[in-house]
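ugh ok so i messed up the first submission bc i forgot one of the chains. this is the corrected input, ALL of the components this time, i swear. 573 residues overall. if the numbers dont match what u have on ur side tell me asap before i send this to the collaborators (the ones from the other lab, u know who)
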Amino acid sequence: MRRIFTFAVMLCCLLLSSIAGAAQITDAKWGVDAENVVRLVVDATEPVDYTVENGSGVLTLTVDAPYKENINKTEKIRSSLAPSMQTVSMGDKTVIKVHLSRTLAATDYKSFTLKKDPKTNRPYRVVLDITADKKAASVSSKPAAGTVVSSRPVVGNKPVSGSKTTVVKTESKPVVSNASTSEKKQEEKQTVSPAAVKGSGKFETKGGLKGKVITLDPGHGGSDPGAVGADGTKEKDVTLDIAKKLEALLKKEGAKVYMTRTTDKDVCGPYAKDADELQARVNVAEQYNSDLFVSLHINSSVNKKIGGFSSYYYPKTQYDLKIAKAIQNKLTANFGVDDLGVREANFYVVKRCSMPATLLELCFISNPKEEKLMNSNWFKNKTAKMIAEGIEDYFK
Amino acid sequence: MKKLIVLLLMLCSLLSVAGCDMSGESNNDKQPAQVEIKKISFVVYRPTADGSEKLLAEKVTMEDNGKSLPENALRAFIERKPQSDKAADIVPPGTRLLGLKIAADGTAYADFSKEIAKRDQGSYNEFMLTGAIVNTLTEFPEIKQVQILVEGEKVTTLSGHMDLEDPLKRNKTLLQK
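and heres the new structure output, hopefully the right one now
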């Protein structure tokens, strides 16, 4: 009897501990995005409860799970509003204090959680955004006539009563606090919608390359490798290499070139949702009032025999087809790979920017011959050169 | 003391019962027994195997399983291999149809498992996949446009190229000879 009792107790302890003690904090980091929003992201192995407290000069995020090891770390943040943050283990909780240069209003920050994303290997996350110094990058919130903008409603910050907000986990566990799950879900969505930057809506299409503003967008990057070939070649690396070569060629001809990324990183940040990540790329083009937007990609298909170049456009101005054609002509005339043609497609980046744009698919990583090709400097240099010549033709 | 033991045992059995429940959940998916065999047929669109931007119509005939024609057509596109080697199977492996709802305004909400939002698929695959789904569904007059959902949620894109925030309409260009 004694034995059974002991066994039962042990079993219960085991079960209980596996249920209650599962969540752990694996990382806490900060970032400042292009719009000057300070973002703290706490990675957790499981959904966790958290609270945010707005004190004078300190914003405290308390997460109900221990940090993976005992921690007491202070780090600088590249922000004049929130110059530093401190991550401290407090028993079963992890406390992150953001030191502020001034006191925040309840609408100056917002918090939400993001679900585990097996697709991109991202863990559960608690996110705290400090938006007090958000730049008016979204200057003209009124879209220019005829341009395509997101149909998503732009929702402002929900007014928060009192200085302390309690939020519960988003998972389907029983809700124990005053905030309802549906309310939480809604919050999660509205916080992540990125502000679409709108430029002047004007662009040049003539007069040569000199002085033209061109934004180059090396597809994917950072946490998103894009397509991956059988030999391990990653789309994000090939697109970046070609974009850098193209940047140099265009600059030599006197164009002003902006890149959505110059290293292996996500444009919006490693914690961005798809909408933010794609919009961030469009925003770069808008911010600099670009005359042209060129997004570079490598194609892939489950059919390994398919290969070739294709140039995509969205017919929003009369010049989108023109730029796609100009580049496609150069590419296909100078390589012995298939010409898949100029194609119209409902692609996010080319559809949502206001200036003429094209998305180039520079061969197939899924085709073994082409994968080998795109690993050679010869291919990357020549592709860059052909695209540059196509752009030059377009601006003639 | 005895009370404590009883309490603990009860707690244990409660927990173990809860565990059983969760693992046994997937068993109630059984098909009802078929009584009469009736044939149904419909068209499924699949991309050509040569990589050109075209869809081929494929006629599928199957036993009536009581499900709606649009749902059967979408399931056939996802679950069946192409009948001809002129057509390619471009559905990411593991993709399942979680539901199909047709709203009164003619918008079909096609909900897929997360596998469909495969990162490692080029724009060609993403474009033809969405085009095949939309054209297969809009073959039915009650469906005018299609909103693709992943695990019940609206998505911006499947793999970083297509803009899926608004419902997609039939793409006639893909059907031209």
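quick check: The first strand of chain B starts at residue 39 and ends at 47. that seems consistent at least. Helices of chain B lie at 2-23, 69-79, 123-138.
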